[in-house]
Backbone:
């Protein structure tokens, strides 16, 4: 089953 | 002092419509270049990025950068008090804690003024690199809206596959499966009706329809929408606001466990 990824794992905090 | 006037309240109403389902509170970052907003939904799955450049306003003045912390629901309520054809002016003092909305009727016979308290919002700004994507699909915004709505009746997740044949949207659920395929039709005369697919290699990604349906609340802002995709990276859904800005949504993919 596909799991929803978080945006935080792709973009870094400024 | 920050002051910005736009000719039609309708535009700001549409922008709020496009943001309000995803974001509760947001900082409207005003600089001499224009107004921008970046905010994630509470579950950190999607992000909205808005840009309204100063040339989109009738009058624009921003003496120094200022962040207006705004509760989107409160602003939406205030903007409902404006007629679509009213001119709107936003005004805030540099050290103030309010923003003032002035609505002027087209015949200039009615002027309304609403003051709204600003909030201190601790927002996390994300650095989003501009990048080339493996595939892009430009299509009529209303078409994308319809596809997301229709496939939501079947399932919660849509698989978007881009191949040489076109772009395919598939959802499946307990009751069955739905597939919608669009082919490149860049030869159609009317640009807003075109489906234009660019692709470096075939790809297939899965996304939550719940968020895509939030994004399609921006449909009234633009004739077309562009989806930009790269394997295992967030989807970018962009609606251009005339020639003076955009609203972009980012959505993290669903990844096989």
Residues:
């Amino acid at each position: 089953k596909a799991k929803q990824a978080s945006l935080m794992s792709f973009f870094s905090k400024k | 002092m920050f002051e910005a006037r736009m000719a039609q309240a309708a535009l700001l109403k549409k922008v709020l419509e496009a943001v309000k389902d995803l974001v509760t509170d947001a900082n409207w970052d005003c600089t001499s270049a224009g107004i921008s907003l970046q905010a994630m939904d509470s579950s950190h799955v999607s992000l909205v990025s808005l840009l309204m450049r100063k040339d989109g306003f009738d009058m624009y003045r921003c003496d120094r950068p200022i962040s207006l912390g705004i509760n989107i629901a409160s602003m939406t309520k205030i903007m409902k008090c404006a007629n679509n054809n009213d001119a709107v002016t936003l005004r805030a003092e540099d050290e103030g804690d309010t923003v003032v909305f002035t609505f002027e009727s087209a015949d200039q016979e009615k002027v309304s003024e609403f003051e709204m308290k600003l909030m201190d919002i601790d927002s996390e700004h994300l650095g989003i690199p501009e990048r080339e994507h493996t595939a892009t699909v430009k299509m009529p915004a209303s078409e994308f809206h319809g596809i997301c709505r229709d496939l939501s009746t079947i399932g919660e997740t849509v698989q978007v596959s881009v191949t040489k044949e076109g772009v395919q949207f598939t959802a499946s659920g307990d009751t069955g499966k739905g597939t919608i395929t669009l082919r490149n039709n860049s030869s159609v005369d009317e640009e807003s009706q075109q489906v234009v697919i660019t692709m470096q290699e075939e790809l297939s990604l899965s996304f939550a329809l719940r968020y895509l349906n939030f994004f399609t609340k921006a449909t009234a802002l633009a004739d077309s929408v562009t989806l930009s995709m790269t394997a295992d990276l967030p989807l970018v859904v962009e609606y251009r606001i005339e020639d003076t800005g955009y609203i972009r949504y980012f959505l993290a993919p669903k990844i096989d466990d």
